[in-house]
Records
---
Amino acid sequence: MVELKDIQRVLQKNKEGANDEFKRLFHGRGGLYEGYRHLTVDHINQNILAAALYFEEENEDAIITMLMEFVLQHNYDTLVLQRRYLKGAPSEILCGEVPEDLTILENGMKLKLNLLSNKNNYYFPDMKNGRAFVREHAKDKHVLNLFSYTCAFSVAAKFGGAKSVVNIDMSKGALKIGMANHSLNRLDPKGVSFLPYNILKSFSNIKRKGPYDLIIIDPPSFQKGSFEATKDYEKIIKKLPQIAAEDATLLACLNSPELESQFLIDMIQEWAPSFTFQERLQNVPEFASKDEQKSLKNLIFTRSF
């Protein structure tokens, strides 16, 4: 059984080298620390530490005391705790304050962050390597970003020199944040679209703007009334040949612990056989998991005939 002092040592080790960029200091959800699967701790920047508890635990007070000591020791100004196990997942500022227009840095990109949201906070840090891949392969490409949320992939693509990016998401609010993310980075808005479509019902409109050289599919594993990976991913894969350029690259993402990489590989082989599986991107080291097949899966496919 892992003890609290062991968690302190992990935090100390991972804090080394942390700078103004976001960094996960403790990832209990990976299952590597028995008894602490419910805890995550993030270095937002040099001033702000944020933690989340996913289950109610008897030693919650001890965890908070440990985090407060860590904040003082490393000269953070602010500690925010989100209790994900409570209805509404409320966040509490335990010390300091949170700037109204908070942003994080990732590989030099600025992205908006809402630490006090009772939903997702605009930013998924475990997707860092996926965004790096897009940035490295976007030069002069026409990019399609499905389930774009706050459009961090789009920002990465524009940093990488993309010719155009089409962002598709049902949430107008998320797309509005996406527009702000582009403005934050002073990116030329020319060629960037933000379309509030239901992806599964809008393929004629999506096809009209194609074909696309680089396609990103990053859906929720399950979102009631919107998307369920086990039944809806297939619908998108079947449409790929109609919207992809002849030499297109596909980044297909899957963040469901119950589904392994082979779920997507087999589906694409059946319904979009012109795409060939190339590799699974390595995950960010700070998000290591006891069972990597249960962690985030970023799969790269290329199209050829």
Note: Residues 104 and 141 are 26 Å apart (CA to CA).
---
Amino acid sequence: MSGELATAQGLELVARIEAHSVRAWPAETIERIHDGWVLRASPGLPGRGRSNHALTPGRPLARAEYDGALARVGEFARQHGIACGVQVSPLDIHAPLVDELAARGWEVHQPVLVLTADTGPVAADAQPSVHLQVTDTATPEWVAAWARCDQRTDVEDHVQSVFPRMAGTARFARFGDRATGISVELDGIVGLFCVAVAPDARGRGLGKTLVRAMLAQHDASLTYLQVFSDNTAGLALYASLGFHEEYRYCHCSAPNGAGGGVSVPAHAVIPARV
């Protein structure tokens, strides 16, 4: 990616997935810094992790880099009127940064697991008789179904900000108003987002049916998605489909929203809710 340092050896796949996610879930403003940091701002989605938080480089950071990098992250947040935050990814190489941020009073949010699977074997079990409704925009019907399935309070914020930027690239899928998901295929990778099943329809295999049907539309060989570490039902579902953990990340929020905006809990790119 232009302007970034080379990815550390062994982290090539992590870098590919993170680059995919930056494009697939587009922020309103993105700045790529020469040392590998990616700065993102979407003031219309306050507190949404990948929409507003800086992303760490795909290489280990020296402690001498912390002050300058965090000052730049804070200044970017002030310029765009957002709460200051960092997505620390992957955790296994950036644990010292998390420790440093915690020592400085930053809030460290729960880890998110990035799971991957070979697309073909998952899609191979798709049921031909299942009718999946798919559009290339977030139609009112899809939005209403997602609101019912995920039961979010910020649905309209997404409708006004991120979803229009995904139009034409993403596929918005649903089974009526019982299950929803978004898939984005870029550069040989499929990313799954907003996978959710209505509360009264969970535990019946609908999430598994949805994922299989969504991936049957795609040719890319690799699929990834994200799940909160405490989502035991989601982790069990994806394990049964053949997904495994590739790496972890977490979001860290500056104390009192330092850098701009009002501090609110940070989240990832809407991990699955099934």
Note: The CA atoms of residues 81 and 260 lie 5 Å apart.
